[in-house]
Structures are given as C-alpha cells and as structure tokens.
C-alpha cells in the first residue's frame, strides 16, 4: 500500500508527488489520461499571474514563493530528467495604461521590480511591437517555462524519485471506512492508501461530490495559437487587453488566450482563432508573415478569486485537496506543492494555510 495516493497527474499533482517522495514517502500518482496533457500542457508557462496586482494576497504569496525558487527548480528537474524545461527570463511588458499606481504598490509590497516606462523605451524593449503611444509597465524579472518540456521533465523527476505512476486510471469512486479514506476504485479494483490527495484540476469537484464535499471549481476553456516565427523576432512576453504573446527560445510565438464558460468542451472554434490572429497582428505586425502551426484548447480549473484549495479535510481522515489554480498553475505550483507536503507531513508550513480553505 502507498503511504500517499495522488489523483490527478497535472503540474500540481506531479509537483506534490515529487515533494512527498523527496521526503521519503511512498507515493503513487493516478492519472485518468496521460500525465500533464490537460491544462498543464495547454498553458502559456508564464511564471507570473497576468496583471498580478489584481489578485489577492493569498495568490501573490504563493506566486512570490515560487518565483524565487523556479530557476533552481528548473535546473534540478533538468538534472533529474535530462530534459530542460527552458526557464527563460523574458520579462513581462504590459501595455495597458491606468493601473500604474496599483502595479507600483504591488511591486513594493512583494519586493518585485517594476518600472513605468515611456513609449520610446517600450519600443526599444520590443522593437517588433506596433507603434506605441502610451506608457508601459515593465516587470523585468518575470520568466517563463515551456509547458510541454516542463511536463516531460517532471515525469522524469518522478521516475528519479521512484514515484509509481498509473496512467489511463480513471477513479470511479472514493472508499471510506469509519470516516477515513481507505482506497479509491479504478476499473472495479481497490487501490488502498493512507493519505489521498485530490489534484484533479477542473475534475476535482466531481470526485469530491461523491463524499458530499462541495468545492467551487469549474472548467474555463482557453484557446491558444502557435506561430512559427524566427528566433529573436519577438523577445519579450507582451500583455495587452488580456491577450499575451510569449516568445520561445526556438522562435515560436504563443498567443492566447480566451476565457470561455463551455463546461468540459475542449473543442476549438473559428471565432476564437480569428480573434487571436487579429490580436497577434495588432501587437506584432510581423507575425502576419508567419505560419500558424497549431490551434488548441485547454480547461482551466477556475476557483473563486483564483485562490486554490490547499487543505486537509476536517471530517474525513486522510483526505487532502490541492486544486483550483485557475490560469496560474505553473507559477503557483511549487509553493502549493510544498504547502501541501507540509500539511501532510505535519511540518511547520511555508506560509499560513488558512486562506486556502475558503468556502470549504
């Protein structure tokens, strides 16, 4: 029997499994499909919330903790797996005006570098931009990772730490005995565990509802595009009107993203494609000459105010939840996983865990 059974093999589940395995626990990770192929694979990989000052302290604290350790984490993952997640400090250039005071106050509160820059400097930072007339908000320390490579690196790390991974293992139910987690059911078979952690993203609510637990996590579809550009054609992460452009090391440029209430529908639409293409051309005119290689959609696990649930259930012994990271799973993942591990292992937590029990 595993000491710890984790249901959900996205970034949150994999990071949580890694933290516990590094502490010496015997960990099994269950995934209904293949590891990291839902929202973890589909996202942009920006190691920062978009417009970070718009979020609560609960989100900012998790993000700040993760940002401080991400470069080292990427190096460790590369060493453990042989796969480089491509941590790259691109900086984040925000073109919307009107929130400069909020941005500067947030930066002061969290020790982040933040500059309000004139249009001429905006153009210098990203020459590929359409001509700028307004000021920009420049966050030079913001980095990114390449999601598919991060997923592969995490998988290799789990193998390094002897985590047992069971893919294509959809959980049909959670088994209790005397108000304690006993096992989960997969294809009619019981898989027992002392500790059970739900890290199933947008699917978490459905699993927990069978125990009478209601958490406010729902799927929000996001559609994205990938352009085949040349290296250096775009060099900064650019954000404007809730749409972003992310340059990868090999020159490819990712453009996203929509926010759609369509349930668990992951299909793409011509309307979203047209809108994203228009935004890409508005921001970086030279992308008009680039091939669109891929158009896809993912389902974000949306939660109230984007605050994830990270807690030990008070009524059911051995049950834990780490889910609802909305569109910030990459940046919030390391701190969420460490906090979850602290709770499971009864260690002094890296931060106060009370904010992550909201509405439970």
Helix content: 25-40%
Biggest beta sheet attributes: 8 strands, mixed
CATH class (first level) name of the domain at 1-87 and 143-217 and 304-360: Alpha Beta
Task: Classify the beta-strand content into a percent band.
Answer: 25-35%
What is the average of the pLDDT values?
A: 94
* Low-confidence residue ranges: none
Q: What does the radius of gyration come to?
A: 20 Å
Architecture (CATH level 2) name of the domain at 1-87 and 143-217 and 304-360: 3-Layer(bba) Sandwich
Structure class: alpha/beta
| Alpha carbon gap, first and last residue | 29 Å
Helix-strand sequence: EHEHHEHEHEHEEEEHEEEEHEEEH
What CATH calls the topology of the domain at 1-87 and 143-217 and 304-360 is FAD/NAD(P)-binding domain
- Please report the total strand number as a whole number: 16
Written description of the protein model:
- The protein is α/β, with parallel strands linked by helices and 360 residues long.
- The chain has a domain at 1-87 and 143-217 and 304-360: 3-Layer(bba) Sandwich (FAD/NAD(P)-binding domain).
- It is 31% helix and 25% strand.
- It has nine helices and 16 strands.
- The protein has helices at 11-22, 39-42, 57-81, 100-110, 119-125, 147-160, 204-209, 270-283, 329-345, and strands spanning 2-7, 27-30, 92-94, 115-117, 136-139, 164-166, 171-176, 181-186, 189-198, 218-228, 237-240, 243-247, 253-256, 291-302, 309-312, 319-323.
- The strands form two sheets. Strands 1, 2, 6, 7, 8, 9, 15 and 16 form an eight-stranded mixed β-sheet that branches. The chain has an eight-stranded mixed β-sheet with strand order 4-5-3-11-12-13-10-14, with helices on both faces.
- A hairpin with a 4-residue loop joins β7 and β8.
- α1 (11-22) packs parallel to α6.
- The mean pLDDT is 94.
């Amino acid at each position: 029997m595993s000491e710890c059974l984790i249901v959900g093999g996205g970034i949150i589940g994999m990071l949580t499994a890694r933290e516990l395995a590094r502490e010496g626990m015997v960990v099994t990770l269950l995934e209904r499909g293949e590891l990291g192929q839902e929202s973890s694979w589909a996202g942009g990989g920006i190691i920062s919330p978009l417009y970070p000052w718009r979020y609560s302290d609960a989100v900012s604290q998790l993000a700040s903790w993760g940002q401080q350790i991400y470069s080292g984490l990427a190096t460790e993952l590369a060493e453990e797996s042989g796969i480089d997640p491509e941590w790259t400090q691109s900086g984040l250039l925000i073109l919307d005006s009107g929130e400069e005071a909020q941005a500067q106050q947030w930066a002061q509160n969290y020790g982040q570098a933040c500059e309000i820059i004139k249009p001429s400097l905006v153009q210098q930072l990203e020459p590929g931009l359409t001509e700028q007339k307004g000021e920009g908000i420049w966050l030079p320390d913001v980095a990114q990772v390449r999601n598919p490579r991060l997923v592969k690196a995490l998988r290799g790390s789990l193998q390094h730490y002897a985590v047992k991974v069971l893919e294509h293992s959809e959980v049909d139910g959670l088994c209790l005995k005397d108000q304690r987690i006993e096992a989960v059911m997969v294809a009619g078979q019981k898989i027992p565990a002392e500790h059970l952690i739900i890290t199933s993203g947008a699917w978490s609510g459905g699993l927990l509802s069978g125990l009478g637990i209601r958490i406010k996590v729902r799927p929000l579809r996001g559609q994205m595009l990938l352009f085949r550009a040349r290296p250096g054609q775009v060099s900064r992460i650019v954000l404007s009107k809730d749409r972003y452009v992310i340059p990868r090391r090999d020159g490819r440029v990712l453009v996203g993203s929509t926010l759609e209430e369509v349930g668990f529908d992951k299909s793409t639409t011509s309307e979203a494609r047209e809108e994203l293409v228009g935004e890409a051309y508005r921001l970086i005119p030279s992308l008009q000459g680039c091939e669109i290689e891929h158009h896809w959609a993912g389902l974000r696990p949306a939660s109230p105010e984007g605050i994830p649930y990270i807690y030990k259930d008070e009524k059911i012994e051995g049950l834990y939840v780490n889910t609802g990271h909305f569109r910030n799973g990459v940046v919030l993942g390391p701190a969420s996983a460490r906090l979850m591990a602290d709770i499971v292992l009864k260690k002094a937590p890296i931060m106060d865990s009370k904010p992550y029990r909201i509405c439970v």
